TrEMBL record:
PANTHER family: ABC TRANSPORTER ATP-BINDING PROTEIN, TAURINE IMPORT ATP-BINDING PROTEIN-RELATED. One of its GO terms (molecular function) is ATP binding. This is ABC transporter ATP-binding protein. InterPro entries: AAA+_ATPase (IPR003593), ABC_transporter-like_ATP-bd (IPR003439), ABC_transporter-like_CS (IPR017871), ABC_transporter_ATP-bind (IPR050166), P-loop_NTPase (IPR027417). Keywords: ATP-binding, Nucleotide-binding, Transport. Residues 8-238 form the ABC transporter domain. CDD domains: ABC_NrtD_SsuB_transporters. It holds the Pfam family ABC_tran. The lineage of its organism: Bacteria, Bacillati, Bacillota, Bacilli, Bacillales.
Length: 258
């Protein structure tokens, strides 16, 4: 299976007037076509930095990043980036928020508008298209943010803690809906999360980063019974609790190392 995302020897240093700090070091990561992986690790271990590097928003200090075999040298049209906050424009309707990426790329053609309408329908947002963001719940706003991200048909979706600001029930419902949509559209996805259960329930692989600087500490392959279920049911699937304990114990071992 083809590697859609490939990171080789990636390190990054943040430089300020006072100091230089090594955020991530010697990262090797390959993500296959259609794969869903999660990045977990302690705060400050460089998870979001890695997403920014993959997206072409940051050029790594060392190493290379490739999307579908071609070097990333800046913001990449095949990458869609969904953040923790929805960043919807309050003066625009849900429809006009959803199509803003197409507007900016001058791609607002009938076939693309039809695709956005289809995405809104999949996300149960068709009746909300003429409403404004303040009229929607947090979960609905995040669904609009996903539609906006997918409207330009990226091959790779980067998800930076998109559920963390939501209540638990909404989060569980949204996990199922978003994962189903991503798989239906055969997208490759990389999720950053602090939630071990979420990482296991949604992913094919869980990549744990160590701290100071961030390095890949361990990789966990998610068993088929979990991968083949939607996240809500995956939490009760065979092997889920055993894998959760394994990941948790690795976190505890990291804490003891200081």
């Amino acid at each position: 299976m083809q590697h859609v995302v490939s990171m080789n020897h990636v390190s990054h240093v943040y430089v300020t007037e006072r100091e230089a700090s090594l955020a991530v070091q010697n990262i090797h990561l390959q993500v296959r076509d259609g794969e869903f992986i999660s990045l977990v690790g302690p705060s400050g271990c460089g998870k979001t930095t890695l997403l920014s590097i993959i997206a072409g928003l940051i050029q790594p200090t060392e190493g290379t990043v490739q999307i579908e075999g071609k070097p990333v040298k800046g913001p990449h049209p095949k990458i869609g980036y969904m953040l923790q906050q929805d960043y919807l424009y309050p003066w625009r309707t849900i429809w006009s928020n959803a199509i803003i990426g197409l507007e900016l790329r001058k791609q607002l053609r009938p076939e693309h508008e039809q695709y956005v309408s289809h995405l809104l329908e999949e996300m149960n947002l068709s009746k909300a298209r003429d409403l404004y963001p303040h009229q929607l719940s947090g979960g609905m706003r995040q669904r609009v943010a996903l539609v906006r991200t997918m409207a330009t048909r990226p091959d790779v979706l980067l998800l930076d803690e998109p559920f963390s600001a939501l209540d638990y029930q909404t989060k569980l419902q949204l996990e199922d809906l978003i994962l189903q949509t991503i798989k239906n559209h055969k997208k490759t996805a990389i999720l950053v999360t602090h939630d071990i259960s979420e990482a296991i329930a949604m992913s094919d692989r869980v990549i744990m980063l160590g701290k100071n600087p961030g390095r890949i500490r361990k990789e966990f392959v998610v068993p088929d019974p979990i991968r083949n279920a939607l996240p809500f049911e995956a939490r009760e699937a065979t092997g889920f609790h055993e894998l959760f304990r394994e990941v948790w114990q690795e976190f505890e071992a990291m804490d003891k190392e200081g």
